[in-house]
Design a protein that fits this description.
Blueprint lengths: L7 H8 L14 H19 L3 H13 L7 H13 L3 H13 L7 H12 L4 H13 L7 H13 L3 H13 L7 H12 L4 H13 L7 H13 L3 H13 L7 H14 L2 H13 L7 H12 L4 H13 L1
Helix pairs in contact: 2-3, 3-4, 4-5, 5-6, 6-7, 7-8, 8-9, 9-10, 10-11, 11-12, 12-13, 13-14, 14-15, 15-16, 16-17
């Protein structure tokens, strides 16, 4: 029977795909500011002469206010010029602008049109984004076959997000292809690049022997590394390990601490488990009021067991 794992992690990847955030630059001293302004002048001259790379860099200067007055409109003007010349990095960035509505109206179809152009030049981020778009059907036709094909190309090019997402697809059996061993290999590649969620899933595979030799003792440091990278899933798994004594000595205090950390990160499962600890007084003093607070937090995100627990508490009051 195929292993069934919730698709939360894949959705997290979509939400955290590296969206651009432009902010006004600040410099530590006058010398640095002068240097940046000089480089901006050089970019302006080259951009005016039609150099696509310079046009792209000038667009970034306008977006961030680096050595020049910040202007999103001017930034978009130069970004589009570079993209129109076929500069892949500019095409990918323009796609992001359309996806998020930065400087233009949101338009997923237009975003995908520019990702297609950049992906045709083997731009790894564009290939990854196009793959995810086909899997979700946003801006392009929904096609698991095309989505996986683009993810595979991006993963082969070394894109950590693509390696992680393709690994998760192999774990889930998307498009009828389930391969635990390949998933573990892909998670390990992405984890080596510091990808927190891939590190969590690599640890999960080692913890339970999924597609890889079962090595619970090696999983714990990986889980801690993933948790340091703000993986809520890792904090929950660490909490569970300390709660039941899986690969570590059982320790209710540490379990409580990891659930607390995960809940503060926004993990719905951590909120639920923290509520249980508070309700039962494990790793802490019993506190029904605080337990209800965390159950409500989890229930507001459609956590069925948290909703059930709240009903039980209400009925027994």
């Amino acid at each position: 029977m195929p292993l069934r794992i919730r698709k939360t992690a894949l959705l997290v990847t979509v939400a955290l795909m590296g969206t651009p955030c432009y902010a006004h630059e600040e410099y530590e001293d006058a010398e640095e500011a002068v240097m940046v302004a000089s480089l901006t002048t050089v970019n302006q001259e080259a951009a005016a002469a039609g150099d696509a790379a310079a046009q792209f860099q000038l667009a970034r200067c306008y977006f961030t206010g680096s050595g020049i007055a910040q202007s999103t409109a001017r930034g978009m003007e130069w970004l589009r010029k570079a993209a129109d010349q076929g500069y892949a990095e500019a095409q990918c960035q323009l796609a992001e602008c359309y996806l998020l509505g930065n400087g233009v109206s949101k338009n997923a179809d237009e975003a995908c049109r520019w990702w297609v152009k950049a992906a045709a030049q083997n731009h790894e981020e564009a290939m990854y984004r196009l793959g995810m778009a086909h899997l979700s059907g946003e801006g392009v036709s929904k096609s698991d076959t095309l989505g996986l094909a683009w993810l595979k190309r991006a993963a082969a090019a070394g894109n950590a997000n693509a390696q992680y997402s393709l690994g998760f697809c192999r774990l889930q059996g998307v498009n009828g292809v389930q391969n635990f061993a390949e998933a573990a290999v892909l998670f390990e590649k992405a984890a080596s690049c510091g990808h927190a969620e891939a590190t969590f899933w690599l640890a999960f595979c080692k913890l339970h022997g999924i597609g890889i030799e079962r090595k619970p003792q090696e999983a714990i440091p990986l889980l801690e590394q993933a948790a340091d990278g703000l993986s809520g899933s890792a904090t929950v798994q660490l909490g569970r390990c300390y709660e039941v004594g899986l690969a570590v000595e059982a320790d209710a205090d540490k379990a409580f601490d990891w659930y607390w950390t995960g809940a503060r990160m926004g993990s719905t499962e951590a909120c639920y488990r923290l509520g249980l600890m508070l309700l039962e007084g494990r790793g802490c003093s019993p506190n029904k009021e605080k337990a209800i607070k965390w159950f409500k937090e989890a229930a507001s995100n459609d956590h069925a067991r948290a909703q059930q627990k709240l009903q039980e508490i209400t009925q027994n009051s």
